[in-house]
Write a structure and sequence with these properties.
Chain B: It is found in: Cell membrane. Chain B: Belongs to the ABC transporter superfamily. The complex is a heterodimer of chains A (258) and B (281). By secondary structure, chain A is mainly α. Chain A is built from 10 helices and 2 strands. Chain B is α/β, with parallel strands linked by helices. The chains are: A mainly alpha (258), B alpha/beta (281). Bound molecules: adenosine-5'-triphosphate and magnesium ion.
């Protein structure tokens, strides 16, 4: 079950990217989405992707991005092939793939899409790989998100993890009694399904008790909440946010006047 | 000063036929250590939850009578308000883990963050309760990686850190070994001596006899008796209520040895020893 054991992708490293506060990273995602919309050129998107990849490299988390990128590329390649072969308005034939012809228009269109998707995925990965989920949620709660929603998000992460470990404990017990839990996918699924009932049901019954335990710990208190940890701040957060804003305005101006 | 006043409390869970609490009245003084005993389903947990307002606010259901904790009427206040005065530790330590914190230290901070305690005081209180409950060595572990006993200590620590005037505990040592239970009872007794009023539902009768100032005996949702451990455990009809007296009491009863200069049987090892030595001389 190790593949599910950690559902958070966070990689704990020391880097300036890790030190940047989550809110600034959220702004960066927004920026990476908006800029290619304002300036739809191929070069601009490529530059954005380049910046994100440099940041991922600086954060020393490039290895963790590979599975994500591979998955994304797998999907995108299908898009490229289909668009290149069949996009309406395809005229210029580049080369032939068996009975089909690959066209320049479709290919370019698909490559632009691919670049934009890669761009957004890269920006998200900077956030996800370098920020603990709990830190992110806490920053959002400080910015005014409801603590209840925050609690639900963080606890879902934790409780799924807890369920996974219960599950692997039971699986270990079954294996030691001779049940097959490894090998072919079907065998694994067969071993897995009977566990879902008790584990999920158990977690649901626990929900009521957990809700009571939260109540008596002042979860619904109207007092102004305080935080054990000081808010994570990065000395250049404001500067980065300002720079992102200026660049966006610049992009709009470019689009309008040139 | 009266810390807890319960007057004619009646309560029925929603969608049930029978009352879970039937016309219960009693009063508790500041700094007392009260034990609640009774067989399974006699209403111990329900009574505990009535003191923090989970009954009736969390469950709803039919409610009659009055519960005052530190002058606050439970019925007309929210659980959040009451929880500033009354802390409650539940039976199952696993469901008391919030599930939103990565370490034991942060877990204990959860309640303190909610009530808006300044950071400095938070840290000071957490360090204090970690020491009191002897879980300093696991403060950076994940709450889910603790043993049952350690989790139970953490649950108690999390509530104590909120510094309630009244501490309600529902079988708080079920996961602890005998030595661990002893330690926890000791720590709770310390708190009680500092003036905190303690109410504890517990099956470990010897511990109740040793630590409690008074014992409340429940049977089928009714209050049978509320008196000193000696008086309660000297009752001849205990069996009818599904409760057994501490082993020391049973031995002395069998031998017909009463506590010196009293009309009750001893309930602790020390008293039993004294009484028995007295007869030998
Ligand atoms: N959530 C609930 N809904 C309906 N009925 C309940 C609920 N909780 C308890 N009861 C009922 O109320 C009565 C008292 O239960 P309670 O849990 O208070 O007993 P208890 O003395 O704590 O028992 P135990 O020793 O098993 O902990 C029982 O008859 C029980 O079935
Ligand atoms: Mg109970």
């Amino acid at each position: 079950m190790t593949f599910l054991k950690s559902i958070s992708l966070f990689v704990d490293r020391k880097s300036f990217v890790h030190d940047i506060d989550p809110i600034t990273k959220l702004y960066y995602i927004l920026f990476a989405i908006i800029i290619p919309i304002i300036l739809p050129s191929f070069t601009i998107s490529a530059i954005c992707v380049g910046i994100s990849i440099l940041l991922l490299l600086a954060a020393k988390v490039m290895r963790k991005t590979l599975p994500v990128y591979s998955f994304v590329f797998l999907v995108l390649i299908t898009v490229v092939i289909i668009q290149g072969l069949f996009r309406p308005g395809n005229e210029t034939v580049l080369f032939h793939l068996g009975p089909f012809a690959m066209h320049k228009e479709g290919l370019l269109f698909a490559l632009t899409i691919a670049l934009r998707v890669t761009n957004i995925v890269s920006a998200f990965m900077i956030l996800v790989l370098t920020t603990k989920p709990s830190t992110l949620v806490e920053s959002l709660v400080r910015k005014g998100m409801s603590p209840r929603i925050g609690y639900v998000i963080v606890s879902v992460f934790q409780i799924i993890q807890e369920m996974m470990s219960t599950m692997s404990t039971i699986m270990d017990a079954q294996r030691s009694r001779g049940m097959e839990t490894e090998g072919k996918l079907l065998t694994r699924i067969k071993a897995f399904i009977p566990l879902l009932g008790p584990v999920v049901l158990g977690s649901l019954i626990n929900t009521k008790e957990r809700a009571m335990a939260l109540e008596v710990r002042g979860f619904n208190s109207r007092n102004l909440k305080t935080y054990l940890y000081e808010e994570k701040t990065f000395p250049y957060s404001k500067a980065i946010q300002a720079a992102l804003l200026v660049l966006t305005i610049f992009a709009v101006a470019w689009r309008v006047f040139l | 000063m009266k810390k807890i006043v319960v007057e004619g409390l009646k309560y029925k869970y929603p969608m049930t036929e029978e009352l879970a609490l039937k016309d219960i009245s009693f009063e508790v003084e500041e700094g007392e250590f009260i034990g609640i005993i009774g067989k399974n389903s006699s209403g111990k947990s329900t009574l505990c939850q009535a003191l923090v307002g989970l009954v009736p606010h969390f469950y709803k259901g039919a409610y009659g009578g009055k519960v005052l904790v530190d002058g606050l009427e439970v019925r007309s206040h929210t659980i959040a308000d009451i929880s500033l005065k009354v802390g409650m530790v539940f039976q199952n330590p696993f469901t008391q883990v919030t599930g939103s914190k990565m370490t034991v230290y942060e877990e204990i901070a959860f309640g303190l963050e909610n009530i808006g305690l300044p950071r400095e005081e938070m840290r000071q209180r957490i360090d204090e309760v970690l020491k009191l409950m002897k879980i300093e060595h696991v403060k950076d572990h994940s709450p889910f990686d603790l043993s049952g006993g350690q989790m139970q200590r953490m649950a108690i620590a999390s509530i104590i850190a909120m510094k309630p005037d009244i501490l309600v505990l529902d079988e708080p040592t079920s996961q602890l070994d005998p030595a661990g239970s002893e330690e926890v009872f000791h720590s709770i007794q310390d708190l009680s001596r500092q003036g905190i009023t303690v109410v504890m539902a517990e099956q470990k009768i010897e511990k109740i006899a040793q630590y409690c100032s008074r014992v409340l005996l429940l049977y089928d949702g009714k209050l049978v008796d509320f008196d000193t451990p000696e008086k309660i455990f000297s009752r001849d009809d205990l069996k009818d209520y599904g409760v057994t007296a501490p082993v020391y009491t049973r031995v002395c009863k069998a031998l017909g040895v009463k506590k010196q200069r009293c009309d009750v049987y001893p309930v602790t090892l020390e008293d039993a020893e004294l009484a028995l030595r007295g007869t030998i001389k």
